Every structure is written in C-alpha cells, then in structure tokens.
Backbone:
C-alpha cells in the first residue's frame, strides 16, 4: 500500500502541504520540549543534559521499528522509500562542520528556526549565519564540486554494507541506543549543570 | 517495574522479533509479461541523448556507460569512460556485479537500439534494476549531440534552446561542427542545470 505519495494514492501536490503540516508539528513539539534553549543542545556535548540525544535516538528507533513492521505486514514497500545517496568524504566533513556548529551556536538548524520564531536573538543570528553559509557554499561550489561528489557509494543502507539483515541491524541499533542512554545518564550525574 | 523499564523491554522484544523474522519477500522482483509491456510502452528505460549529455558534462558520478557492441567495434569508437560488455557475454559471471546493483545508473548503448534493448530486456527480466537504454543509440547521439542540425527559424523557443544546448555540448564532446564558437554557447555548455529523469522522489529530512 504505502508509501502513499510515490504510489500516487495521495497526489504529489499534497507533498509540500503534508511536509508543511508535519514541520509545524515538529517545531511545536521541539519548542514544547524546551529545545529552543541553546543550553539544552550544548548540554549533550558537555554531558549535563542528554535529552536531545535521547529524543532523536528514540525517534529513530520508533521510526525504524515502525517501518520494518509495516514492511513485514506488507503495508509499505521499502524499495520505494527514498534513501539519501552517500558521498562518504563530504558526509564526514559535513558532519564535523555541523557538529562544530552545534557546539559553538548551541542550535541545530531545526531548533534555531524554532527559537527564532519565539523571538530569541541568538537564534536569529544563527539563522542569518546559516544563510551566509549557504550562500558561500553555493558561490564556492565549482571549487568544491570535485570533493563534494567524491567517494559516491550510492543509496546504500548500513545493513547492506555490513551484509546483515535489516532486522538484525535494527536489533543492534536498539541495543546501541539503550547503551548510549545508560552512559548518557551516568554522564548527566557526573557533570551536573552549573546554574548561572 | 518503572514505566521506562517496561518500555525498554517492549522495544527490545520487538527488536528481537524483527531480527529473526525473514524480510518481507512478497514482492518478487521478476516482472510479469504485462508489467514489462507497460514499462516498454511508457519508455521508462529510455535516456535521451540530451539528458545524458547534461549528466556527462556535470560529471555525474552515478552514471556508468556500457557499450553492448563487439570488442572490435568498441576499439574503433566508444564514448568516454564507457565499459564494454558485448551482448554475447552479458550473462558471464564477471559482469553480474556491474549489472545487478543499486548504486550506479547503467546506460546501455549500441549503434542503434536493438542490441541495447535486447540487453535491457534480459537484465530486466532477471530483475536487475538501474539499467537504461540510450535513446537512438550512437547514431542518434552523433546526429543530435555531435552534429546538431539547426532548427528552422520559425521553430518554437524550446527547439532553439535545445539546439543551443546541443551546440555547446557538441563542443564539449569534441563534435564535428565548430563553426559558431562563441563564448556564450561554450559557457552554456559547461554548466547546464541538472534535470534528473524521474527517479524515486521523496522529501529529504534533517533535524
């Protein structure tokens, strides 16, 4: 049956509308969970607050299990679900730059928009920075293109690279998530937040 | 038992179940005759020379050209970076990793389209994906990209735009007619916009 849009059960024109509605909901939940505070995000890196890590990994585990069970019951055709293509080196460098941005700015792109929407000035500066970055990257693209396109691995999944079944990989991801939550909680106790 | 411990154990149990059940294989890859007929009718396997030219100019890393003709013909002329898999050796063990994969977009070509279509038909029946056929083959490639002929002056704008692009592409690929080498057409050739043929589409996401 699913995915609904590629199978044309829902018209493609609805794509953006649904994305818009989901995006508003996502932003609302982020704000309600306190993610529009830059201390919350920076807390992951200093160890005093692991809520961000927990929320995103819980979301990943929920989504992963949901998709695998949907596929098992034949409710969704996983072959039609878009997988981002992997360009290994640019993904690594991009990840490092993005991580540095998280620590320095205290926002991830999503939460910065969220925080800007409720009027936080630091978030507005951060969003401005994002656009400067986009512009600089676009202008420099001809120089960066070769690197950007290097090491193309195609639309691979981790389970294919490791040569195990998707279900087995899912199980290991669940174990890894639980292990990380456990370590994170120890860290939270060890590095308590200093109040200002 | 606290609620979070209960939740954790439920998730672990669900994970164990999914780890041991076989993946859903109710959708076999092999096509029925009518599905194949439908694909052929819609021409989803075709790649136009203009699209291919754009991708090659942009150094699209996912493109793999495959020459289906005999090694002799391949020696005489072949497109840059094309590999040679003669039709008679299509089913050889050594090519299966190239033909049956989900990474590269293989584009078969021959002089016309008969050989490449035969190769496509066989690989498609085997359930391989990501194999395509260059529309019109090398003959049409030469005609449209290497030696494009000017449209009539009364042609619609997009015909003329297409010609301008082909003219630029012709220079890029070192084609025959270099009579009108203006800087404008050249810069146009070096950076045409990537217009992907319909692949799987879905919105990207991030945090």
Residues:
């Amino acid at each position: 049956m699913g995915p609904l849009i590629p199978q044309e059960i829902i018209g493609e024109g609805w794509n953006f509308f649904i994305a818009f509605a989901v995006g508003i909901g996502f932003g609302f939940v982020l704000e309600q969970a306190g993610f529009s505070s830059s201390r919350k995000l920076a807390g992951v890196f200093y160890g005093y607050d692991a809520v961000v890590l927990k929320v995103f990994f819980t979301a990943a585990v929920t989504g992963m299990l949901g998709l695998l069970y949907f596929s098992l019951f034949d409710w969704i055709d996983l072959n039609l679900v878009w997988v981002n293509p992997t360009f290994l080196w640019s993904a690594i460098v991009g990840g490092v730059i993005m991580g540095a941005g998280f620590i320095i700015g205290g926002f991830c792109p999503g939460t910065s928009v969220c925080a800007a929407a409720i009027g936080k000035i630091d978030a507005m500066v951060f969003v401005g920075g994002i656009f400067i970055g986009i512009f600089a990257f676009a202008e420099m693209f001809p120089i960066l293109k070769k690197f950007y396109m290097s090491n193309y691995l195609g639309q691979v999944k981790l389970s294919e690279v490791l040569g195990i079944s998707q279900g087995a990989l899912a199980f290991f991801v669940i174990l890894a998530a639980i292990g990380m939550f456990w370590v994170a909680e120890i860290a939270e106790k060890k590095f308590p937040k200093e109040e200002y | 038992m606290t609620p979070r411990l209960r939740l954790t154990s439920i998730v672990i149990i669900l994970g164990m179940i999914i780890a041991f059940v076989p993946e859903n294989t109710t959708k076999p890859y092999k096509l029925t005759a009518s599905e194949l007929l439908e694909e052929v009718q819609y021409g989803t396997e075709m790649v136009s020379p203009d699209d291919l030219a754009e991708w090659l100019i942009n150094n699209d890393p996912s493109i793999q050209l495959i020459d289906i003709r005999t090694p002799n013909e391949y020696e005489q002329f072949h497109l840059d970076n094309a590999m040679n898999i003669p039709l008679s050796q299509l089913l050889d063990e050594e090519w299966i990793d190239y033909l049956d994969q989900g990474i590269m977009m293989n584009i078969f070509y021959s002089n016309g389209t008969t050989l490449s279509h035969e190769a496509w038909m066989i690989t498609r029946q085997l359930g391989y994906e990501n194999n395509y056929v260059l529309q019109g083959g090398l003959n049409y490639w030469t005609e449209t990209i290497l030696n494009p002929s000017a449209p009539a002056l009364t042609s619609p704008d997009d015909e003329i735009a297409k010609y301008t692009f082909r003219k630029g592409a012709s220079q890029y690929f070192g084609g025959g007619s270099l009579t009108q080498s203006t800087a404008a057409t050249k810069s146009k050739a070096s950076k045409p916009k990537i217009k992907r043929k319909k692949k799987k589409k879905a919105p990207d996401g991030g945090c």
Strands of chain B lie at 46-47, 63-67, 83-84, 105-109, 131-134. The interface with chain A takes residues 8, 11-12, 14-16, 18-24, 26-27, 59, 61-62, 101-104, 200-204, 206-207 of chain B (CB under 8 Å). Residues 147-190 of chain B form one domain.
